[in-house]
From TrEMBL:
It holds the Pfam family CTP_transf_1. It is an enzyme of class 2 (transferase). It catalyses: a 1,2-diacyl-sn-glycero-3-phosphate + CTP + H(+) = a CDP-1,2-diacyl-sn-glycerol + diphosphate. This is Phosphatidate cytidylyltransferase. GO terms for cellular component: endoplasmic reticulum membrane. Pathway: Phospholipid metabolism; CDP-diacylglycerol biosynthesis; CDP-diacylglycerol from sn-glycerol 3-phosphate: step 3/3; Lipid metabolism. Its main location: membrane.
């Protein structure tokens, strides 16, 4: 093949290496001296004229066929608004329908958020053809949820789980079963390590466990808040939403000073203004929720809803308490001030302060993560809003804090029926358990609750069993 001479131009070739007919020019269509045949020249000229006319027409019609930036923003706003109301409707529908529906919502949020975070690292696994990696990620999720859900069920429903013949072995050996499941996944991970991909596989292993901790484990404590009383779920969640709204309003109204470089639009003025408004919102909302036992009572009936309500002895945090200020040296002797307040109002201020000053850093953390991987959103699970993780980044840490705060400052750690049942089943031998039953039946007979004939028959049956 002869080499093309320097300086020779190829008029038939377009700038991108394609001929005017839309295909790459072959060597047979170009003459040795660089000029095409007369026929090719005429065809090229004709094609060029036709293409120029087409380009002119397309340029004239392009603005009419393509939506403008205003139309795009308007369409996105409408989609975003529509799905906002859909999410609000679904949330309050689940909230008023009962605790089990809120639990289902939290479970869906867990799974979708985990899927979005894991998807960031799943593209390389497909490129490297490491098929077990994706399956192992979901195995870790199922194992973790089995352990956490089992712990919750055993803790809150001992009186049901520990008296069932099938569930009793699963309950008493739950942690060992969970550990065995984890070890199986660990062995499977090590067995599938491949030379040349070790760095990626270990990075994916660490990434998956980080997602399990930041999403699944923290969401588990949100679920526990629901069982302790709906207020401990709804109040923290609403405080985060309120803070986000007022941070935007205060920021665009009088925000001047940048707060953090990860989020250039966040301002100190919006940050402080949102804190004040969130505290006020917490006081007002707490005052409303405390009037309903559906919100303040721990779950003792999974079939309850906003209409049936719940019955319980309210926690002292929801009962009015009179506070007396100490004597002030500049006031006459015997002068004091007192006011009556529910302790829950102080707790709501603490929760609102955390939601305003600390929880936003969960969002900043998510922003930094997205900047690291150069993505705008974690996914497109919610049209117009992005991914589920984009909406829940602050809620996870807020729910975790609410659980720790409740267990530390509000919960009453007292003996209940479930605790006694657990001690009797796991701490007593079979003979001791039968003696306990005989003693309780005798006590109930003396209280006039059980008929003596029933107690006698029960005693006879227990003796025969021995």
């Amino acid at each position: 093949m002869t080499k093309p001479r320097r300086g020779v131009r190829f008029p038939n070739r377009a700038a991108n290496g394609l001929s005017h007919e839309g295909r790459r020019s072959s060597m047979s269509e170009i003459s040795e001296d660089g000029s095409g045949s007369p026929r090719m020249a005429r065809n090229a000229a004709s094609s060029s004229t036709q293409l120029d006319n087409i380009r002119e027409k397309s340029n004239d019609t392009a603005p009419a066929s393509q939506p403008s930036d205003y139309e795009k923003k308007k369409a996105n706003f409408l989609v975003r608004t529509f799905w906002t109301f859909v999410m609000i409707g679904l949330f309050f529908g689940a909230l008023f329908s009962g605790h089990i529906y809120i639990i289902l919502c939290i479970t869906v949020v867990q799974i979708v958020s985990f899927k979005e975070v894991i998807a960031i690292a799943s593209v390389p696994s497909r490129a490297r053809q490491l098929r077990p990696t994706k399956s192992l990620n979901w195995y870790w999720l199922v194992t973790t949820m089995y352990f956490l859900y089992g712990e919750t069920v055993i803790y809150y429903f001992k009186h049901i789980v520990l008296v069932d013949r099938v569930l009793l072995p699963l309950a008493t050996h739950h942690r060992f079963i969970s550990f065995v499941l984890y070890v199986i996944g660990f062995v499977f991970f090590v067995a599938n390590l491949k030379a040349g991909h070790l760095k990626f596989q270990f990075t994916n292993f660490a990434w998956t466990h980080m997602a399990l901790y930041l999403i699944v484990v923290q969401a588990h404590f949100v679920m526990n808040n629901v069982f302790e009383g709906m207020i401990w779920f709804f109040l923290p969640a609403s405080l985060v939403i309120c803070n986000d709204i007022f941070a935007y309003i205060c920021g665009i109204t009088f925000g001047r000073t940048q707060l953090i470089k990860l989020s250039p639009k966040k301002t100190v003025e919006g940050f402080v203004g949102a804190w004040i408004m969130t505290v006020l919102w917490g006081i007002v909302l707490t005052n409303v929720l405390m009037r309903s036992k559906y919100f303040i009572c721990p779950v003792n009936d999974l079939g309850s809803n906003i209409f049936t309500g719940l019955e319980c002895d309210p926690n002292p945090a929801f009962l009015p308490h009179t506070y007396t200020l100490p004597d002030l040296f500049f006031l006459p002797e015997g002068t004091n001030f007192s006011f009556t307040f529910e302790p829950m109002q102080f707790h709501s201020m603490a929760l609102a302060t955390f939601a305003s000053l600390i929880a936003p850093f969960g969002g900043f953390f998510a922003s930094g993560l997205k900047r690291t991987f150069k993505i705008k959103d974690f996914g497109d699970s919610i049209p117009g809003h992005g991914g589920m993780t984009d909406r829940m980044d602050c809620q996870f840490i807020m729910g975790f804090f609410s659980f720790v705060y409740y267990q530390t400052f509000v919960a009453q750690h007292k003996l209940n029926y479930g605790n006694v049942m657990e001690l009797a089943i796991t701490g007593l031998s079979l003979d001791e358990q039968m003696e306990l039953v005989r003693g309780l039946s005798k006590y109930l007979e003396n209280q006039g609750i059980l008929d003596p004939s029933i107690v006698a028959a029960l005693d006879k049956a227990l003796v025969a069993r021995r």
